[in-house]
Amino acid sequence: MATLRIPDVVPSPVEDCERLKNAFQGLGTDEKAIIRILGRRNAGQRKKIRETYQQLYNKSLIDCLISELSGDFRKAVILWTYDPAERDARLANEALKSRKKSIIQLQVIVEIACASSPHHLVAVRQAYCSLFHSSLEEDIIANVSPPVQKILVSLVSSYRYDKAVVDDDIANEEAAILHKAIEAKKLDDDEVVRVLSTRNKFQLIQTFLCYKNNYGKSIDQEIVACGKGILESVLKVVVWCIDSPEKHFAEVIKTAVVGLGTDEDSLTRAIVCRAEIDLMSVRAEYFNTYKSSMDNAIIDDTSGDYKNFLMTLLGANI
Amino acid sequence: MATLRIPDVVPSPVEDCERLKNAFQGLGTDEKAIIRILGRRNAGQRKKIRETYQQLYNKSLIDCLISELSGDFRKAVILWTYDPAERDARLANEALKSRKKSIIQLQVIVEIACASSPHHLVAVRQAYCSLFHSSLEEDIIANVSPPVQKILVSLVSSYRYDKAVVDDDIANEEAAILHKAIEAKKLDDDEVVRVLSTRNKFQLIQTFLCYKNNYGKSIDQEIVACGKGILESVLKVVVWCIDSPEKHFAEVIKTAVVGLGTDEDSLTRAIVCRAEIDLMSVRAEYFNTYKSSMDNAIIDDTSGDYKNFLMTLLGANI
Q1: Domain B245-313 of CATH type 1.10.220.10
Q2: Domain A13-69 coded CATH 1.10.220.10
Q3: CB-closest option in A141, A154, A160 to B135
Q4: CATH numeric code, B168-243
Q5: Which residue, A82, A141, A271, B145, shows the most beta carbons closer than 10 Å to its own?
Q6: pLDDT digit string (tens) for A79-108?
Q7: Could you tell me which chain A residue has the CA closest to the CA of B158?
């Protein structure tokens, strides 16, 4: 369930644009107004606002936000204002072009490939081609080394059947295939890649269940036990994003806020990308796993407009 | 260039539907009217006719055609009347479910993956999921053996960048990768699959050109020289469908009409699928390669309404 709260009576796109325009004018920027408007509109409403703003003022709303805002607040508002497919294409590109390629970056690709609908994934691939003059797959190949490269290319190329059709025989059979590969520590085996990148989500959840029932341990534990390399980390995220995305995103948020510093990019991504999807379940999962409040952890680690914006996406009345 | 001819003044969908309805009524069916109407409308117009027919008579136009027509004529008219993405999803499914899996069947998948636009390929995958309750990739895996399986799954999963962005260094580099694999007769090498399934069409055409310039022989000849197996045949079709689809479809038509019998399924598919795309170029390529007229070959090998329908799609005034 989503955390995003939309007012009972939503102003027209023209009204929203006029208020945004006002918020940009004068000496200071009225950040609170921006949060109040954009932070309480769904993707369809934000699209209409972007289009209306362009028509009314012959200017891109995104460009105005870029010039008016700054820091983590700016990044969060802009990601939220983009069309979700364009947002994810940009996040993927940023991850691939970053000098570091640890799990922090590579998990962004896995989230798009495994924790989105097949339809959204295709839209991201289309947006990627339009924005960056090469395909997402080509950029993965150019920027990620094998064997992770092969896995990511196959995952982003998937177009899974999206209804709950499950075959128990296949689940048992493919649990055995996965178990054999994990036992042999051949995590990049063609068959593993095939199973994870072609089967529908419901079928894979059943396969993971069979794995646990037939071999005594959960597949993510067994993958992690294979080693501490990037391949193991990526495959663990694949399993979580398919099996229970809320578990994955709870962990992303926890990792972002834990310790002294904060990883604002990961925190922003998790909140912005899931506020309209399952952030309520992420919150519940966070509480169950870490025995503490996710919202409080975010409040403690952020401040100012950035904090207010994230809290608004989390449903708070700022 | 297309061969399909649309009249200067196109009747409204309602008029077309009324005439189709009349053609179905009475003792016999008026096949000529059906050919005259459907055989002279483009995909968008046929879509409107399908929708209008359903609204006017609360019946599916496709179902009426199934019950009114017969034989190869029926098959051709129905394939032509489907939405192109649904048509190709059905063709792919028929090919995968057929008992024989020679190049005659498997090339259908290659055509969809390599001789269509990225957008159309995605639409076919979506239609496939809707119609057959599994993904195209899953059905390839269930019905085609390795190593061809791996190649087909990667090709249908592609979403190539669709503009003419070409990098000469990459072309030379990847021509060398392909040459090394062909020399070693490792046609299903991961790198071969990667290059063929992720690079844009224009880049691949340049890579094939580099191959010829750098190694003296064209890549399709070298692939064929590797052996007479299904893997070599499939890869040759991949190269042709990317490099010059008109060459491939000219060969499909020639093979369909050559000798005593006719392969009506392949002939129908080539004409129906390319009439709106490049059938004019296929005709020219046929003439250049076989020094004879494609249209005459088809006239000699077909008869009756089936012949008239194919000729109409080829632009003739029947």
Answers
A1: yes
A2: yes
A3: A160
A4: 1.10.220.10
A5: A271
A6: 999 999 999 999 999 999 999 999 999 999
A7: A157
